[in-house]
Amino acid sequence: MNSAAEYDFIIVGAGSAGCLLANRLSANPDHRVLLIEAGGKDNWFWIKVPVGYLYTIANPRTDWCFTTDADPGLAGRSIHYARGRVIGGCSSINAMIHMRGQSADYELWAQATADERWLWGGSDGPGETLAIYKGLEDYFGGADEWHGAGGEIRVEQPRVRWKILDAWQAAAAEVGIAPIDEFNRGDNSGSAYFHVNQRRGRRWSMADAFLHPIARRSNLTVYTQTQALRLLMDNQVHDDQRRGAWKTAQHRVTGLQLLKDGQIVDVRARREVILSAGAIGSPHLMQLSGLGPAGLLAQHQVPVAVDLPGVGENLQDHLQLRTVYRVQGVRTVNTLYRNWITRGGMGLQYMTLRSGPMTMPPSTLGAFAKSDPALASPDLEWHVQPLSLPKFGEPLHSFGAITPSVCNLRPSSRGHVRLADADPLTYPKISCNYLSTDADRHIAVKGLRMTRKIMAAPALARYGPQELLPGPDLVSDEDLQHAAGELGTTIFHPVGTCTMGAFDSQGIPRSAATVLDTDCRVYRVAGLRVVDASAMPTITSGNTNAPVMLIAERAARAILG
């Protein structure tokens, strides 16, 4: 290979984590860094306009357009599983909601990895999580006890409010879910308008934050429209063992085979390959390369390099149950979109003031509560939308309505991602196994009943809410469990398919499901890390983009350190 095809670090995936890693690793001019993205550039108009998610999700220009296997928990349905396929990855098509999760989430991570640095921390705590979040942040209100200023990730208040959502918040308060200032202080109990990753009414993706400002660095190369096909490996790991990197390493990753401009080419990594292709892409690429469950690989005639049973397993996601209520006498997106005059007004407001409905994320108001008062922290979240539609991608209803979606923040159901065959261009099989445990079905029913309780509170009475979905005739637990399966769909938060775990003093994982150590290094494989949502041992409470940035920042520090 000529020198142009050799780099110190190769990063697969220019999504949220990949953009941060490219920024941090190329800050040293002695590092030659290659960033690979299967999709194209993020310069399309609808990526930057917040409401453009309606056009970017389920669009092959910006979305991988995966679909899941038929799911018994969803009444046998297969659902669309959006993942970003563009510079910025999911942060170019997501809901823009800035949600750190709760301190209890990071207690679980610390237990799983035997690493107290994952703890939330603070002035008297051992953890680093809050401090890293503050360091990454450019908060609209400036630096304070909870927030940072001057970081790359812009966080702003929403630029539109809705009377119907204010009434919903008041109704939630009447049933015990009090209004709060925000969700990012460690305990999210209450309701508030979501903070968003926007700058002056435009989407602020992680490419805007980390990649575009440093795109002219001479030591950074970005390939777009380039797909990683397989990892290149050899078994020369003696140098790694002498350095103490992995006493148990069986192989060293030396580079990647790529499909670029219709040609198959190899690129070499002198130091590390870092997979940031997401909770679907990263385990799939590992399996194609012989890193994964030996039985699965043998089934598809893939030579086994390292038997790693956890690769592709432990898939977790938040299942949202979309309830729909018709309302009257109040403005909703449905009523504004009913004619060209109000639609034109929305566009004019956005073009002149960068405010109004076109700055709106998919969900504007949120709420957190406990399904059981005995719980230490909330396990239910609502995303409340001032609109309704039969399903995503279809036209809005012609009448005024709202959609309060409720999801279980700590599902016990587990799915998996597995290669379908040995062809790198064949999409993997995604099985979510939603509602496959008694606990998840029970919490689904609780969430639907609590939603009904909020909608029946006095603060909403003036708008005459009428339940359309799941339907007022469904009363029993059995009926509501069945409805949850028919209504449920992903909220696009897949995590956990290459999970971090704890290791003993000999470098052996304490669980066979563990794939990574706490610095995101792959067990038994030198020169390879997985830095994205795959690494999460357990799913966080709420949207997952901010926690991915936490993982990426910590991994970058570990690599550079």
TrEMBL record:
PROSITE patterns: GMC_OXRED_2 (PS00624). FAD binds at V86. Keywords: FAD, Flavoprotein. Gene3D superfamilies: FAD/NAD(P)-binding domain, Glucose Oxidase, domain 3. It comes from the Bacteria. Residues 278-292 form the Glucose-methanol-choline oxidoreductase N-terminal domain. Its cofactor is FAD. One of its GO terms (molecular function) is flavin adenine dinucleotide binding. Pfam families: GMC_oxred_C, GMC_oxred_N. PANTHER family: CHOLINE DEHYDROGENASE, MITOCHONDRIAL, GLUCOSE-METHANOL-CHOLINE GMC OXIDOREDUCTASE. Belongs to the GMC oxidoreductase family. This is Choline dehydrogenase.
